[in-house]
Amino acid sequence: MTTFPPDQATYIRTHWIMAALAMAGGMLILWLLGNAHIWTGAIGGLAAVAVRGWFLKDEALAEVWSLSPTGLAGPGGRGVALDDIAEVRTVGAAVQVITHDGNKHLIKFQRDPAATRATIVSALPAR
Q1: What is the pTM of this model?
Q2: Alpha carbon distance 77, 73 (integer Å)
Protein backbone atom coordinates (compact mmCIF):
# COMPACT_ATOMS: atom_id res chain seq x y z
CA MET A 1 0.00 0.00 0.00
CA THR A 2 1.24 3.45 -0.93
CA THR A 3 0.17 6.58 0.94
CA PHE A 4 -0.02 10.15 -0.28
CA PRO A 5 0.28 12.45 2.74
CA PRO A 6 0.08 16.23 2.29
CA ASP A 7 3.35 18.16 2.50
CA GLN A 8 3.54 21.02 5.00
CA ALA A 9 6.04 23.04 2.94
CA THR A 10 3.76 22.76 -0.10
CA TYR A 11 0.80 23.84 2.05
CA ILE A 12 2.67 26.95 3.17
CA ARG A 13 3.95 27.74 -0.35
CA THR A 14 0.43 27.40 -1.75
CA HIS A 15 -0.89 29.83 0.85
CA TRP A 16 1.85 32.35 0.02
CA ILE A 17 0.72 32.21 -3.61
CA MET A 18 -2.94 32.62 -2.60
CA ALA A 19 -1.97 35.55 -0.34
CA ALA A 20 -0.16 37.33 -3.17
CA LEU A 21 -3.19 36.89 -5.46
CA ALA A 22 -5.61 38.02 -2.73
CA MET A 23 -3.48 41.07 -1.98
CA ALA A 24 -3.31 42.08 -5.64
CA GLY A 25 -7.03 41.41 -6.10
CA GLY A 26 -7.98 43.44 -3.05
CA MET A 27 -5.88 46.37 -4.19
CA LEU A 28 -7.31 46.17 -7.72
CA ILE A 29 -10.89 46.19 -6.46
CA LEU A 30 -10.25 49.20 -4.23
CA TRP A 31 -8.50 51.02 -7.09
CA LEU A 32 -11.44 50.31 -9.43
CA LEU A 33 -13.82 51.65 -6.77
CA GLY A 34 -11.78 54.83 -6.53
CA ASN A 35 -10.62 54.29 -2.96
CA ALA A 36 -7.63 56.45 -2.07
CA HIS A 37 -6.27 53.81 0.32
CA ILE A 38 -5.70 50.87 -2.00
CA TRP A 39 -2.92 49.55 0.25
CA THR A 40 -5.61 48.32 2.67
CA GLY A 41 -6.57 45.72 0.06
CA ALA A 42 -3.13 44.15 0.47
CA ILE A 43 -3.53 43.98 4.24
CA GLY A 44 -7.03 42.53 3.94
CA GLY A 45 -5.96 39.90 1.40
CA LEU A 46 -2.96 38.84 3.45
CA ALA A 47 -4.99 38.69 6.67
CA ALA A 48 -7.78 36.65 5.06
CA VAL A 49 -5.42 34.01 3.65
CA ALA A 50 -3.31 33.90 6.83
CA VAL A 51 -6.37 33.27 9.02
CA ARG A 52 -7.69 30.67 6.57
CA GLY A 53 -4.32 28.90 6.44
CA TRP A 54 -3.95 28.86 10.21
CA PHE A 55 -7.52 27.69 10.79
CA LEU A 56 -7.48 24.84 8.24
CA LYS A 57 -3.87 23.69 8.62
CA ASP A 58 -4.43 20.76 11.00
CA GLU A 59 -7.39 19.46 9.02
CA ALA A 60 -5.70 19.83 5.61
CA LEU A 61 -2.46 18.20 6.72
CA ALA A 62 -4.35 15.21 8.16
CA GLU A 63 -5.92 14.26 4.81
CA VAL A 64 -3.93 11.20 3.75
CA TRP A 65 -4.89 9.11 0.74
CA SER A 66 -3.88 5.45 0.38
CA LEU A 67 -3.48 3.40 -2.77
CA SER A 68 -4.15 -0.33 -2.55
CA PRO A 69 -4.27 -2.94 -5.31
CA THR A 70 -8.03 -2.33 -5.60
CA GLY A 71 -8.49 1.41 -5.12
CA LEU A 72 -7.83 4.74 -3.48
CA ALA A 73 -9.03 5.39 0.06
CA GLY A 74 -9.24 8.92 1.34
CA PRO A 75 -10.27 10.87 4.41
CA GLY A 76 -13.85 10.87 5.61
CA GLY A 77 -14.61 7.50 4.10
CA ARG A 78 -14.04 8.69 0.55
CA GLY A 79 -12.83 6.05 -1.82
CA VAL A 80 -12.60 5.09 -5.44
CA ALA A 81 -12.08 1.68 -7.03
CA LEU A 82 -9.28 1.62 -9.57
CA ASP A 83 -11.72 0.31 -12.19
CA ASP A 84 -13.85 3.45 -11.69
CA ILE A 85 -11.04 5.92 -12.41
CA ALA A 86 -11.41 7.57 -15.82
CA GLU A 87 -8.71 10.24 -15.58
CA VAL A 88 -5.92 11.39 -13.29
CA ARG A 89 -4.39 14.84 -13.70
CA THR A 90 -2.34 17.37 -11.80
CA VAL A 91 -3.83 20.70 -10.76
CA GLY A 92 -1.19 22.88 -9.16
CA ALA A 93 0.03 21.05 -6.05
CA ALA A 94 -2.87 18.60 -6.14
CA VAL A 95 -3.80 15.49 -8.07
CA GLN A 96 -7.36 15.27 -9.35
CA VAL A 97 -8.93 11.83 -9.73
CA ILE A 98 -12.02 11.73 -11.94
CA THR A 99 -14.34 8.72 -12.04
CA HIS A 100 -16.36 7.45 -15.00
CA ASP A 101 -19.45 8.90 -13.26
CA GLY A 102 -17.82 12.35 -13.16
CA ASN A 103 -17.04 12.40 -9.43
CA LYS A 104 -13.86 14.32 -8.66
CA HIS A 105 -11.47 13.84 -5.76
CA LEU A 106 -8.45 15.99 -4.88
CA ILE A 107 -5.30 14.67 -3.29
CA LYS A 108 -4.05 18.02 -2.04
CA PHE A 109 -0.68 19.56 -1.18
CA GLN A 110 1.54 16.95 -2.81
CA ARG A 111 5.27 17.66 -2.80
CA ASP A 112 5.57 16.09 -6.28
CA PRO A 113 2.12 15.92 -7.89
CA ALA A 114 3.54 14.44 -11.11
CA ALA A 115 5.01 11.50 -9.17
CA THR A 116 1.73 10.99 -7.29
CA ARG A 117 -0.15 10.98 -10.59
CA ALA A 118 2.32 8.54 -12.15
CA THR A 119 1.99 6.16 -9.20
CA ILE A 120 -1.81 6.14 -9.45
CA VAL A 121 -1.80 5.79 -13.26
CA SER A 122 0.65 2.87 -13.05
CA ALA A 123 -1.73 1.06 -10.68
CA LEU A 124 -4.73 1.37 -13.02
CA PRO A 125 -5.86 -1.80 -14.76
CA ALA A 126 -4.97 -2.07 -18.45
CA ARG A 127 -7.68 -0.75 -20.75
Answers
A1: 0.88
A2: 7
